[in-house]
Amino acid sequence: MRLPLPHLLKRGEGRTPQRWAPITAPFRALGPGSVSSVLKVALDVAYVLLWLVTGLLLLLLIAAVFIPLDNVNITVSGETGGRQLPLTRLLLLFGLGAATAYFGGFMLILRSLRLIFRTLIMGDPFHPANVRRLRQIGLILALVTGGVWLAQGFVAARLAPGVMDPQGLGELLTPVFSVLIVFVLAEVFREGARLRRESELTI
């Protein structure tokens, strides 16, 4: 049995938009106290952690030039088993250098994201600098993806043949798709910044 509209309103089952406003207000996407501000804090924490990890790896990379490596072996494991290899200075420098570049690249990505979210907290998402920051994120992400693909292929072919398989081209589809999305977002932000500039000139 359907109740008339006045009964529904009286029982609180047909709230007006004004009565729903206090419930949805805490979930604002922009401005102080919004979801963007919470994500900005998370990005700040992750950025500091990545900065520390990258700095530690850089110190280890420098120290690896002087560390004696006599009779030191490492075990490279894969799906088909494992293999012991002598730890040469070239192998150590290659591994530490690749890890430093990997974490350093994501640290730079988080740095640009923090600056973008800062503009979101200020309520200015279409800041002209965000276009450049998004393009930087896309470029760094492309470099990191390509670097990981080449490094794993080198390890599989030269350092651990038959133990570690190189990445196939199919495994690049998701990273390449992510890079393209970032560049598309950069163009969207560029168009938004252009429209905002034209609106300001009109006013």
Automatic annotation (TrEMBL):
It comes from Brevundimonas aurantiaca. This is DUF2975 domain-containing protein. It comes from the Bacteria. It holds the Pfam family DUF2975. Keywords: Membrane, Transmembrane, Transmembrane helix. InterPro entries: DUF2975. The chain crosses the membrane at residues 45-67, 87-110, 137-160, 172-189.
